[in-house]
Amino acid sequence: MKYLRCFFVVLFIGFFIQNVSAEIKEKKFTKGEIKKMAETRAVIETKFGNIELKFFPDVAPNHVNNFIELAKKGFYDGTTFHRVIPGFMIQGGDPNSKSPDKSTHGMGGPGYTVKAEFNALPHKKGTLSMARSASPDSAGSQFFICVAAAPFLDRQYTAFGEVVSGI
Predict the structure, then answer these.
(1) β-strand 40-46 against 2-10: which pairing, if any?
(2) Would you say 8 and 90 are in contact if contact means Cβ atoms under 8 Å apart?
(3) Cα 56 to the chain's mean position, in Å?
(4) Which residue has the higher pLDDT, 56 or 26?
(5) How does pLDDT run across 31-57, given as a tens digit for each residue?
(6) Is it the case that residue 16 has pLDDT exceeding 90?
(7) Predicted confidence (pLDDT) at residue 3 exceeds the cutoff of 80
(8) What radius of gyration do the chain's Cα atoms show?
(9) pTM of the entire structure?
């Protein structure tokens, strides 16, 4: 099994995501590529302990591939969970969260977007899903982890993985 390392620092402050990119990143994957992504795990290292993630490329291959590719490039290194809502979710993946200027936290991305891949995965405790703006096709790098069930998000946000350990 392949493991990715994602380095995070947890910060208990946040803002809403705003993504302004028009480019949409989309690709078709072979069964072999889907299998390889499903076998990949990511470990987010925080000062509170590690969070291990597994992915569901069978229902959201572009989102899984995007997350894995960004992690491999070190995109997430040094970012924070910039939005924390107890009893709901924690949100990370914003490159702006590396900056001491907290007014920009929650507004950054990779410079492109990923087309929505809404699916039947429920937003339960431990679900890994992509954050986005009001536009369904506006996800980029920001993601969230549900810390409680949030069924009102089902089929509205792209769920693409779940926490295996460290919730």
Answers:
(1) parallel
(2) no
(3) 12
(4) 56
(5) 999 999 999 999 999 999 999 999 999
(6) no
(7) no
(8) 14
(9) 0.85
List the alpha helices (DSSP H) in 23-103.
31-39, 61-72
pLDDT at 145 > cutoff 70: yes
Give the total number of structural domains in the chain: 1
Question: Can you give the residue range of the structural domain that contains 67?
Answer: 2-165
Element (H, E) at 144: strand 143-146
Tell me the C-alpha to C-alpha distance, in Å, between residue 86 and each of 1, 106, 147, 161. 32, 17, 8, 20
Model pLDDT, residue 19: 37
In this structure, what CATH number is given to the domain that contains residue 37?
2.40.100.10
Nearby residues of 78 by Cβ (< 8 Å), 6 or more positions away: 7, 9, 98
CA distance 151 to 82: 23
Q: At residue 5, does pLDDT exceed 70?
A: no
Extract long-range pairs of 132-138: CB within 8 Å, 24+ residues apart. 132/17, 132/19, 132/157, 132/158, 133/17, 133/18, 133/19, 135/19, 137/24, 137/113, 138/19, 138/21, 138/113
CA dist 152 and 150 (Å) reads: 5
Locate 166 and state its tokens: 């460290």
